[in-house]
Amino acid sequence: MTVRRDLAGRESDDLDDVIGLNPLFARPGEIVDVPRVRLPQEESLPETAYQIVHDEAMLDGNARLNLATFVGTWMDSHAERLYADAFDKNMIDKDEYPHTAAVESRCWTMLADLWNAPDPARAVGTSTIGSSEACMLGGLALKRRWQHARRAAGQPVDRPNLVMSSAVQVCWEKFCNYFDVEARYVPISWDHKVLDGHDLEQYVDENTIGVVAILGVTYTGMYEPVEQIAAALDRIEADTGLDVRIHVDGASGAMIAPFVQPDLVWDFRVDRVASINTSGHKYGLVYPGLGWVVWRDADALPEDLVFRVSYLGGDMATFALNFSRPGAQVLLQYYLFLRLGRPGFERVQRASHDVARSLAREIGAMPAFELWNDGSDIPVFAWRLREGHTSNWTLYHLSDRLRARGWLVPAYPMPADLTDVTVQRVVVRNGLSQDLADAFLADLRSQVAWLDGLTGPMPTEGATPGFHH
């Protein structure tokens, strides 16, 4: 039996309880084992503690080869210097950091302008930790606005519901769970791959607080047609008198469409759109975690949800679920807005879009696959195994084979009513160059050829979704 000692000198025969140091890492006078799940009884030198943590993190995947995540994994050296300069800034402390607070206000005003708010100066917005928080704030505003209207009419407010696609991101399920709202899911299908207004009247009633339209569905990257959804709600209002507003979940697409599809009408140009969110840490190109939410005007954000903070003789509206949170990412977003401007963002987003379209064309041409979409919306696309191609392997097996090459490419079932369909998805982000995409394509073809060469079926035990929505 192997006996090891931790920093306190205690013996342990459970090797999982201790982290053993390479003798080259240990400094004179230090014991070579550190407890894994208890606070050590002795101090370590900073160099030693650093090396332990560094080596643990080294075992994570290579972020540049992660084609599963939407989250940004690269910024330039100037951004990294700015990040280090602002590690200590607390976004909520607007008295101590008034200029960071002013920068936050400038950022969401820029977004209000980018998203064609009728009067950006009258828009209201805030930064958040990410799009999940931003979505919940958008949902809360819809709920509170509905409650006020119902109470003013002497009607009950105990059964609110929210209408959305079955392909929404899990944050909307959380919103409905946390804030006592019935989730009404409109199932997607082969005929209606996204929420498009079809049969919407079957889901909307007097208790509907709003409809969520997704600009870039997480499962596939497809846009939901906001104008079409609004037109369906116009017809519902003409028939029933119900005035139902839209929140656009633009976690990804709200930072793509203005630059890649500028003529697409999805934003505050649609009168029914009350609020829009996006992720600064996705196609906003900032490190995690940063989100934004903007309301078209003060009427869309009930006043009783707004807290006001005075600083330097001014007045600033704040509305967020979190209290203390980092301010550095807000400064990084402002840095990128200043550095890139509209032309720079267009070049960066179009480059990702071009890579996605190119990859989709090549993968769609492979006999093994059938594209679900082609990356023409956000730079994201998905495919499934072509029916009848093989019974020896699945996309889960292909995902495992690619992971062995360093590529993270998730495979997962589609949502309700299409759970028998398994797809694989690629997210093209800033940093996935055409050269890297070509290297991925070569590995994909190689692994498909290996799988197609099997003379019997691969085992199916342990085949699980590689990505959770």
TrEMBL record:
<feature type="modified residue" description="N6-(pyridoxal phosphate)lysine">
    <location>
        <position position="282"/>
    </location>
</feature>
<dbReference type="GO" id="GO:0005829">
    <property type="term" value="C:cytosol"/>
</dbReference>
<dbReference type="InterPro" id="IPR010107">
    <property type="entry name" value="Glutamate_decarboxylase"/>
</dbReference>
<keyword id="KW-0210">Decarboxylase</keyword>
<dbReference type="GO" id="GO:0004058">
    <property type="term" value="F:aromatic-L-amino-acid decarboxylase activity"/>
</dbReference>
<keyword id="KW-0663">Pyridoxal phosphate</keyword>
<dbReference type="GO" id="GO:0006538">
    <property type="term" value="P:L-glutamate catabolic process"/>
</dbReference>
<dbReference type="InterPro" id="IPR015424">
    <property type="entry name" value="PyrdxlP-dep_Trfase"/>
</dbReference>
<protein>
    <recommendedName>
        <fullName>Glutamate decarboxylase</fullName>
        <ecNumber>4.1.1.15</ecNumber>
    </recommendedName>
</protein>
<comment type="similarity">
    <text>Belongs to the group II decarboxylase family.</text>
</comment>
<dbReference type="GO" id="GO:0004351">
    <property type="term" value="F:glutamate decarboxylase activity"/>
</dbReference>
<dbReference type="InterPro" id="IPR015421">
    <property type="entry name" value="PyrdxlP-dep_Trfase_major"/>
</dbReference>
<keyword id="KW-0456">Lyase</keyword>
<dbReference type="Pfam" id="PF00282">
    <property type="entry name" value="Pyridoxal_deC"/>
</dbReference>
<dbReference type="GO" id="GO:0030170">
    <property type="term" value="F:pyridoxal phosphate binding"/>
</dbReference>
<dbReference type="InterPro" id="IPR002129">
    <property type="entry name" value="PyrdxlP-dep_de-COase"/>
</dbReference>
